[in-house]
Each structure stands twice: as structure tokens, then as C-alpha cells.
Design the sequence.
């Protein structure tokens, strides 16, 4: 019988682990893994301020395909609210980016206050349940609370090239479209209807971004591209779609994201800007109290 990995780690770690403790970091990993899965993400989203993330603005998260999120509320919304909203939100329809289900941990590195985890997580795209592979770096404070995370979904372009053609047929039926409708158009129409109906419902008064539902449909369908998955944080329909589940939560914050201005989210970031490092601290864990800065001369 194999000894569970965390017991080996606990024994090996001994007193070398100060604050945060290994137990705290593994506890977070287990809870987070559950909370992100549907339907547990519904409760996590309702918490508004996820307690595994550091308070106020002391949490910076980045998801390579979408963007950088600063603050506990925003990170709770994008990690939990987005998918719970797509699954159970005001206008439930076939989700274009899938719904996260169960995961298996593939690789795990824990050193000092740094954890790097690779997981294989199934996503439900309605027409198929498909695996996705994620690598996330987490940095913890002394209390075992996450202050930074950096998430990458492997081969995201291949994932969507695989799944969107399969969604096309399903959407043509769901939306009652002519059978020759292109994949891009079918997906765009699904997105546009969801964006514009929710904009109509939740973006009222000063939060209103479009004159009318028709103006919204015109813009989202015809003025901007659908976008590839890497453009989920650019001036695209896909970006506005991803921000739509958050409209009921905080309209004043999120309505601009779906409008023509894109707020501080859906606008064309240059390639150079996409590469900028948003993190206050490096994700580093070196032996003998070495720091990256201290090593600079030797590298
Ligand atoms: C979440 O935290 C923010 C402060 O960062 C606070 O303004 C807000 O009221 C909190 N929301 C809830 C529901 O606790
Ligand atoms: C999720 O659970 C199903 C059913 O138990 C299993 O077949 C599948 O391999 C699991 N997927 C992952 C990524 O762990
Ligand atoms: C995937 O989603 C579809 C549509 O909501 C649902 O009918 C199906 O049961 C889900 N499958 C899994 C494994 O959750
Ligand atoms: C997005 O593109 C549309 C069409 O060119 C334009 O009207 C709109 O102002 C753009 N928004 C941003 C944030 O660049
Ligand atoms: C690392 O720093 C801590 C705290 O300053 C100190 O107690 C410890 O002895 C240092 N360890 C090494 C290997 O230098």
C-alpha cells in the first residue's frame, strides 16, 4: 500500500515548515479544489469575500486567458461567480466556456509559502465532458491565506478548437438558427442574447451601457469580433460574455465591462501589456533564505 503523499510530506517537512504550516496549505488546496467545482461554487460565490483569499485588495490573481484581478471580491466573482452564474444564473443557457467539475491532482510542489499545483479538471460543455489541465502557483501569507495566484490553462486554444465545433450543432438547435449558420455566428448569437438580456435586466440608470437591447445586439454581434480564447480579456464578444454572469452581483462594477468601453477589463491590451507582471512579490522559494534579488548577480 502506498502512503498518502501528504503524510510523506508532513514527515519530511518536520520543523522546516514555519508559517504558513503545511497543514494550512494542504487544507486550502483541498477546500479550494472542492469549492471551485459545480455545484459547490454556488455557495463559494455567495460568500462574496472568499475566506481562502487575503482580505480587501491584498490578493492579486491572474488567469492567463482572461486577465488580472485585484481584491477579494473581484477574485471571488471571477473564480466562483462566473461559473456558478453560467450554471444557475438569471438566464441559464448552454455555457460557452463549460462548467468545472471534479479534479485530480497531477503534480504538487510545496516549499516555504509557495505551492505549485497541476490538476486535470473535467469541464462540462453540455455536448461533452472534457478534461482541462491547469497549473496554478499560490503564494500564502503567514496565516496560510492566499495573497497571490497565477493560473494557466494548458493548450487552451486546442481545448476550444476541439469543443466549439461540437457546440455549433447544439446551439443551432437551441437557438432555432438556419442549419448552415457558421460556428462563429452560432456562438456569437448565444453570447449576444445572454449578454444583452442580462444587460437589459441588471444595468439600469447610470449603469446602462446601451440605448436599447437592439443597440446591444448590434454592437455585440456586428461591431466586435467573437475573439479567440486568448482574447477573453480583449475588446471581444467573448470577454463581454465572461463578464455577464457578474452583472447581478455588482452592476456598478461590472456593467461597463459588457459595454462599448469595456470598462477596465474588455479592451485591447497590447502584447507587451499582456506580459506585464502584476504581482507585488515573486513566486519564489529558494533554499537557505536566498532571494531572487540576492541571486541576481549569479544568474
Ligand atoms: C467584502 O469585502 C469588502 C472590503 O474589501 C467590503 O466592502 C464588503 O462589504 C464585503 N462584502 C461582504 C458581503 O462581506
Ligand atoms: C471525475 O469523476 C469521474 C467519475 O468518477 C471520473 O471518471 C473522472 O476520471 C474524474 N475526472 C477527473 C479529471 O478527475
Ligand atoms: C452536463 O451538463 C448537462 C446540461 O446541463 C447535464 O444534463 C449533465 O448532467 C451534466 N453532466 C455532468 C457529468 O455533470
Ligand atoms: C471596441 O471596438 C468597437 C468597434 O470598433 C469600438 O466601437 C469600441 O469603442 C471598442 N472598445 C474598446 C474598449 O476599444
Ligand atoms: C533564515 O531566516 C530565518 C529568519 O530570519 C532564520 O531564523 C534562519 O536561521 C535562516 N536560515 C538560514 C539557513 O539562513
Sequence:
Amino acid at each position: 500500500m502506498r502512503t498518502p503523499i501528504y503524510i510523506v510530506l508532513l514527515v519530511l517537512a518536520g520543523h522546516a515548515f514555519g508559517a504558513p504550516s503545511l497543514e494550512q496549505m494542504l487544507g486550502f488546496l483541498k477546500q479550494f479544489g472542492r469549492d471551485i467545482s459545480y455545484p459547490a461554487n454556488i455557495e463559494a460565490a455567495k460568500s462574496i469575500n472568499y475566506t481562502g483569499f487575503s482580505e480587501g485588495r491584498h490578493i492579486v490573481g491572474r488567469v492567463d486567458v482572461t486577465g488580472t484581478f485585484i481584491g477579494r471580491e473581484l477574485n471571488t466573482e471571477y473564480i466562483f461567480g462566473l461559473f456558478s452564474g453560467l450554471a444557475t444564473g438569471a438566464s441559464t443557457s448552454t455555457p460557452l466556456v463549460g462548467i468545472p467539475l471534479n479534479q485530480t491532482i497531477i503534480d504538487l510542489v510545496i516549499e516555504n509559502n509557495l505551492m505549485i499545483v497541476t490538476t486535470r479538471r473535467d469541464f462540462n460543455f453540455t455536448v461533452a465532458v472534457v478534461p482541462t489541465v491547469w497549473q496554478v502557483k499560490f503564494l500564502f501569507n503567514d496565516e496560510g491565506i492566499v495573497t497571490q495566484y497565477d493560473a494557466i490553462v494548458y493548450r487552451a486554444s486546442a481545448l476550444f478548437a476541439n469543443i466549439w465545433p461540437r457546440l455549433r450543432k447544439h446551439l443551432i438547435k437551441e437557438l432555432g438558427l438556419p442549419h448552415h449558420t457558421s460556428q462563429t455566428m452560432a456562438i456569437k448569437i448565444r453570447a449576444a442574447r445572454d449578454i444583452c438580456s442580462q444587460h437589459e435586466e441588471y444595468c439600469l440608470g447610470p449603469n446602462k451601457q446601451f440605448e436599447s437591447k437592439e443597440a446591444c445586439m448590434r454592437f455585440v454581434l456586428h461591431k466586435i469580433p467573437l475573439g479567440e480564447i486568448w482574447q477573453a480579456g480583449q475588446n471581444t464578444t467573448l470577454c463581454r460574455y465572461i463578464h455577464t454572469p457578474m452583472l447581478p452581483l455588482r452592476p456598478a462594477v461590472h456593467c461597463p465591462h459588457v459595454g462599448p468601453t469595456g470598462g477596465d477589463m474588455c479592451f485591447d491590451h497590447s502584447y507587451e501589456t499582456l506580459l506585464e507582471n502584476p504581482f507585488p512579490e515573486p513566486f519564489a522559494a529558494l533554499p537557505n533564505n536566498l532571494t531572487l534579488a540576492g541571486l541576481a548577480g549569479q544568474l
User: Anything to note?
Assistant: Residues 8-16 have pLDDT under 50 and may be disordered. The CA atoms of residues 35 and 44 lie 6 Å apart.
